[in-house]
Design goal:
mainly alpha, 0% strand, single chain, extended
Length: 157
């Protein structure tokens, strides 16, 4: 039988506030943008307060935090699997910078898609389909693929 935890939704704005406050403060302190702790706390409080005022931002944090937790669980399972497989495969994954860029690209794409879902970005699918079937799209796609191939070939020499 599943536990009933629907009461936790009342505290969701507070959790969103605390999560954003801690993350912003940590980024400010780590990047050393502001050396004064009082100013860093003030900026963090101001930015985190936006997440209490706007309910869409609370929903955005809730949605992304959920999927980020799922992502972390998947990463743990992958690392456990790689631990069982052996050290050679682990070096193949961690030594490859393209692998890291792919993971970061997937995360950025996931955050953009979740923002589009939460904030209801208007996407005209008919115009998007018309643009994707145009000659310009094919040319741009060809240039992107050619650039990637040129980059990979130049790095291998």
């Amino acid at each position: 039988m599943a536990a009933q935890i629907s009461g936790i939704s009342y505290f969701l704005p507070i959790f969103s506030f605390l999560l954003v406050f801690i993350l912003v403060f940590a980024v400010i302190k780590k990047s050393k943008i502001l050396n004064n702790d009082a100013v860093a706390i003030f900026v963090s409080l101001i930015l985190a307060s936006f997440f209490i005022v706007n309910t869409k931002m609370v929903e955005y944090v809730r949605f992304n935090a959920t999927w980020f937790a799922v992502f972390l669980v998947c990463v743990v399972f992958i690392l456990v699997f790689l631990g069982f497989v052996g050290e050679d495969y682990l070096k193949a994954f961690t030594g490859n910078k393209i692998f890291a860029f792919v993971i970061v690209g997937i995360l950025i794409t996931a955050f953009i898609i979740s923002a589009a879902r939460i904030f209801n970005f208007v996407i005209d699918k008919a115009k998007l389909k018309m643009w994707a079937q145009s000659d310009w799209f094919g040319m741009i796609l060809l240039f992107v693929v050619a650039g990637i191939v040129a980059f990979v070939i130049s790095k291998s020499k």
